[in-house]
Amino acid sequence: MERVRVLAGHLTADCLDINEPSISRISTNAASSQGNTVDARYHARTGINSRGDYEKMYKRSIQDPAGFWQEQAQAFTWQRKWEQKHMDFNFDRWKGEIGIEFFKGGTTNMSYNCLDRNVKEGRGSQICFLWEGNDVGTDRRMTYQQVLDETCRVANWLKQEGVRKGDCVAIYMPLVCELPIAMLACARIGALHSVVFGGFSAEALASRIEGCRSKVLVTATGGARGKKPIELKKIADAAMDISKKNGFQVKSVLLYEHPAMPKSKVSSQQGRDVWYHEVIPKQSSSCAVEWLDAEAPLFLLYTSGSTGKPKGVVHTTGGYMVMAAVSTKYVFDLQPGDVYWCTADCGWITGHTYLTYGPLLNGATSVVYEGVPTHPDPSRIWQIVEKYKVRQLYTAPTLIRTLESHGDEFVTRHNRSSLKILGTVGEPINPRAWEWFYKVGGEGRCPIVDTWWQTETGGILITPLPGAWALKPGSATLPFFGVHPVLVDDKGREIDGSGEGILCMKTAWPSTIRTIYGDHKRMEETYFSTFNGYYFTGDGSRRDDQGFYWITGRVDDVINVSGHRVGTAEVESALQSHEQVIEAAVVGYDHNIKGQGIYAYVGLHEGVERSAQLKKELKALVRREIGAFAAPDVLHWAPGLPKTRSGKIMRRVLRKIATKEESQLGDTSTLADPSVVDKLLETRGQ
Ligand code: WT7
């Protein structure tokens, strides 16, 4: 532990509960699931059909990464080729600044490779996006040519508004085709997009708009998910008001009229807001691409960490493009013309890499579904699979558990014979849900690719390749090509063979996070200082005797709610902003459907009534500050918090109380006031 502290030299040693057993907490789940092997037969068109095929290619990718990746990159259009020594990285802070470089000297364009290249290769009239609305019967299809034309129009409008290479455009949209189109339009002219998930609140949107000084916002009147329409424009207006007070003004707003929220129901500000359907059709449908350096930033995407405000993770053009394309191709065995469906929203990294860029780079047809998968009933997802004859279905464990809870009949009433590959992402999948997805969802014939990755990794790093080896429910299995994972112990020593430790990456892959927008130092501290020389993932993992990885969950103070990362610090700070609250501490606990739920301990000022009304108010406060998905599931009025003599909250104790495992509290002798624990136990459930 001491060494970690020395190397870290700052807060990570504190937020990393290495000496607190969050690792063992989760490993008990995973440990039970070692045995069962499932051999789903599948013949991959990529030619990787055995572990031997994989080993051969994997070995090459590790021994000669520069050669391997440049070979992969050749499938794309580059305006200028990379230099001979195109790849370099430094993960060692003692050697100097952390940096990663791929395809140095090369220039390319993401929008060109996603659209123009496909049109040139004869896929202009092939469907690019199959859009399905929230309400049954609402749908729309766009060919590659149509998406290209529309992307050009939006790009031309952005240019007209003064957006230039390197500027940042904020996008706050429902999941309509215009959302990935806006992303592609930014990419075409070298502007960075910053997509903010439509479920984020006005405060959260405001801080993201200000964070990258987006003068242009692309938004919509509203959106439709489930029964009630979402008032996006109202939230966007509130966000822009907040930003204005903070001294930052959005200059122009491109406003898309969503049928669920007609024009007449929203206000628009003259001189700032323009209607999409009025200005975009007038733009030219051709727009020359801006050829960009491989290392030019492509986008930023905010994500929560264990401390402080969300960070703007930056990905760059060339490396991210190649990783998105190659991982989609091999993991989903994706070929041009395949109908592929990733259920994520573009507001998250999965929607960037595996709904938009990955499928388009492979010339596939990407299904885009705006609504909730259980609307109007839990058969919807399978109905869409049947309607579009989906071949690959990529979704999240939380959704699988929800569907499972509704029973098999909703699934079996639809024809699923088109399905060939299933995928999951976002959190460890429990073996029971895995088996249900496999047997019921996929009729016991589709391999499940349990893909492990992160916003910062840009693409999938640990995953099965379909048909190449037998699966084990709950294991993400083996590293993808060019990925070099290691497990380290709490002192940063690599663990050989089977064992359990903290998951790190020893070398760079093309879509490694490049920086945190405007704060390179924070990126170095967050990912490269816990264990010098390694990229620190924040996850624990076990490796079995076959070399398979079993991700056990976060080892830092990040809670994974339904596959979405929620930083404890953010929720705590929202709660603490209430005038009746003195202190708050937030931990995760096992939740049947969400994977983890949010458990908040709240200390109130003297004399404040501990009412149900106040609980409601506090939950609403978190919703307002962050978004609905971050609202605590449980609020516990805490008479005090367990703190060490140095004032650090002992979260391990809070986690045990939340999960009713108080018999395993461990050593509490270092608490400043050990009686706090009994008081917390007495007040639980009140
Ligand atoms: C965290 C990253 C990457 C897209 C979605 C989430 C957890 C992700 C898995 C998996 C176990 C997983 C990790 C990771 N996670 N995939 N297959 N098995 N855990 O992206 O919000 O950046 O969160 O999600 O804890 O660190 P994210």
TrEMBL record:
<feature type="domain" description="Acetyl-coenzyme A synthetase N-terminal">
    <location>
        <begin position="54"/>
        <end position="114"/>
    </location>
</feature>
<dbReference type="Pfam" id="PF00501">
    <property type="entry name" value="AMP-binding"/>
</dbReference>
<dbReference type="InterPro" id="IPR045851">
    <property type="entry name" value="AMP-bd_C_sf"/>
</dbReference>
<comment type="similarity">
    <text>Belongs to the ATP-dependent AMP-binding enzyme family.</text>
</comment>
<dbReference type="InterPro" id="IPR020845">
    <property type="entry name" value="AMP-binding_CS"/>
</dbReference>
<feature type="domain" description="AMP-dependent synthetase/ligase">
    <location>
        <begin position="129"/>
        <end position="508"/>
    </location>
</feature>
<dbReference type="Pfam" id="PF16177">
    <property type="entry name" value="ACAS_N"/>
</dbReference>
<dbReference type="Pfam" id="PF13193">
    <property type="entry name" value="AMP-binding_C"/>
</dbReference>
<keyword id="KW-0436">Ligase</keyword>
<dbReference type="InterPro" id="IPR011904">
    <property type="entry name" value="Ac_CoA_lig"/>
</dbReference>
<keyword id="KW-0067">ATP-binding</keyword>
<dbReference type="GO" id="GO:0003987">
    <property type="term" value="F:acetate-CoA ligase activity"/>
</dbReference>
<dbReference type="InterPro" id="IPR000873">
    <property type="entry name" value="AMP-dep_synth/lig_dom"/>
</dbReference>
<dbReference type="GO" id="GO:0019427">
    <property type="term" value="P:acetyl-CoA biosynthetic process from acetate"/>
</dbReference>
<dbReference type="InterPro" id="IPR025110">
    <property type="entry name" value="AMP-bd_C"/>
</dbReference>
<dbReference type="GO" id="GO:0005524">
    <property type="term" value="F:ATP binding"/>
</dbReference>
<dbReference type="InterPro" id="IPR042099">
    <property type="entry name" value="ANL_N_sf"/>
</dbReference>
<dbReference type="GO" id="GO:0016208">
    <property type="term" value="F:AMP binding"/>
</dbReference>
<dbReference type="InterPro" id="IPR032387">
    <property type="entry name" value="ACAS_N"/>
</dbReference>
<feature type="domain" description="AMP-binding enzyme C-terminal">
    <location>
        <begin position="570"/>
        <end position="648"/>
    </location>
</feature>
<protein>
    <recommendedName>
        <fullName>Acetyl-coenzyme A synthetase</fullName>
        <ecNumber>6.2.1.1</ecNumber>
    </recommendedName>
</protein>
<keyword id="KW-0547">Nucleotide-binding</keyword>
